[in-house]
Design a protein that fits this description.
seven-stranded mixed β-sheet, FAD/NAD(P)-binding domain, globular, 3 domains, about 450 residues, five-stranded parallel β-sheet, 24 strands
Length: about 450
């Protein structure tokens, strides 16, 4: 029987980084990564395979794994015996010393939705074969309906719109991305999508997918009917924990694997990372459904470092939730709590918003308007949320805000932040948007 010091189940970002980090900290340990797919896709790049790039150009290369002498086995794990510390795959058993679940998530299938089993109803799966079959069916079809206007729904809608399909995006909330950004940011994105030719149906719930064996229309609770050749359901993802449950690890109330702050499960020598593991909000301390590759890789580094002894001490204290996306030339990012979420959670907050050009002078040819919003505790001034919209710089600026939240930076500290600026790269030092948004808050305190 084969034996490895570390076996990682799952080949996505969480699994890859766990395996690589374990080799960094424990170079003499043998590591095996098991995955079901021959080729691993960049999860966040999947929407862009609808138009911008081919699926083959969205692979995560294996060079990082092979470069660290990590073995890869493409198969399916059938069962786990945590007492004997062995796993069974299709045609053999393999022993382990440490085991890591990095099994990710699967698209959420709404149990309440009638007709979801019809032909030409799809989800955004992380499978190359599934996506190729889906793209083949979409080719030549005109009317596409997407249910759910979160990040995946919005990005897929925008990509399919580029291919001259007639795209309708349905969302039960009043705005797109309503769970990630505030009204003053989401309204602008609503209008941007409409201007690009996407039909938005906001504040509408789907009652049924109608037709015979194949979808013909989508019926809304309001009674409206929308013709459809293809329906894509993008209402979220659920943790992929069926295998973990069979191993005896504790699964929490939200269906994810319970882990401590070192990513250890309830069973000795078994860890879990990524979408399949339980999350807590960094700010509210409540259980969270946020699933992000960035969060998964952070957890993976902690698990990889702590597999055999605790070397990275108590570092993962909750999920901040840092998102970014782009529609056309307009980028948008969000970190921490939105203002509406903060109020709902009974935080006493105050916000500040500032808008300027991201180059100086603003007449430079590649300049764009950048808008920053910060949300802070009224009493302490500590930043607990932020949003950015504008050009490509929004994607990195939201990461700065995420670090501010993690380090509990106050608006008073931000006001005296030392910054580097350049006419071709940043906003002017006199109107640097992060500082000016903090100034807006201080003026209200």
């Amino acid at each position: 029987m084969k034996s490895y010091d570390v076996i990682v189940i799952g080949g996505g970002p969480a699994g890859i980084i766990t395996a690589m980090t374990s080799k960094t900290y424990y170079p003499d340990k043998s590591v095996l990564l098991i995955r079901r797919e021959k080729n691993v896709l960049v999860p966040c790049g999947i929407p862009y395979t609808m138009s911008t790039i081919t699926i083959e150009k969205n692979y995560i290369p294996d060079a990082g794994l092979s470069g660290k002498s990590i073995d890869i086995l493409v198969t399916e794990v059938m069962s786990i015996d945590s007492n004997a510390k062995k796993i069974s795959v299709k045609d053999e058993e393999i022993k382990y010393d440490r085991l890591v679940f990095a099994t990710g998530s699967r698209p959420l299938e709404p149990s309440w939705l009638k007709g979801k089993e019809k032909k030409n109803v799809f989800y955004i799966e992380k499978s190359e074969d599934y996506l190729n079959a889906m793209k083949s069916e979409i080719t030549g079809k005109k009317k596409i309906v997407i249910i759910g206007a979160g990040f995946i729904g919005v990005e897929v809608a925008d990509e399919l719109n580029k291919e001259k399909h007639s795209v309708t995006l349905i969302e039960k909330l009043p705005h797109v991305l309503a769970l990630a950004i505030d009204h003053d940011f989401s309204c602008n994105l609503d209008e941007k999508l409409k201007s690009r030719g996407i039909n938005l149906m906001l504040g509408e719930s789907v009652k049924e997918i109608a037709g015979g064996d194949k979808v013909k229309s989508v019926i809304l609770e309001s009674g409206k009917s929308i013709d459809a050749d293809i329906v894509i359901i993008a209402v979220g993802y659920s943790p992929n924990t069926a295998l973990a449950k069979s191993s005896g690890v504790l699964v929490g109330v939200k269906g994810a694997i319970w882990v401590d702050e070192y990513m250890r499960t309830s069973v000795k020598d078994i860890f879990a990372v990524g979408d399949c593991s339980e999350k807590k909000s960094f700010i509210t301390r409540k259980l969270s459904n946020i699933m992000l590759a960035s969060t998964a890789t952070s957890e993976a580094r902690i698990a990889g470092a702590n597999l055999f002894k605790l070397q990275v001490l108590r570092t993962f204290t909750g999920t901040i939730g840092i998102f970014s996306t782009r529609v056309g030339e307009s980028a948008l990012g969000s970190a921490g709590l939105t203002e509406s979420q903060a109020v709902e959670e009974n935080f006493d907050v105050i916000s500040g918003t500032f808008e300027t050009k991201d180059r100086h002078p603003g007449t430079l040819p590649d300049s764009s308007t950048i808008k920053v919003k910060l949300i802070a505790s009224r009493l302490s001034g500590i930043i607990i949320g932020g949003q950015v919209s504008g050009g490509e710089s929004a994607g990195e600026m939201i990461n700065i805000i995420g670090l501010m939240i993690q380090k509990k930076v106050s608006v008073h500290e931000l006001m005296i932040m030392q910054i580097g600026t350049h006419p071709l790269l940043t906003a002017a030092p006199t109107v640097y948007p992060l500082v000016k948004a903090a100034e807006q808050i201080i003026s209200k305190l």
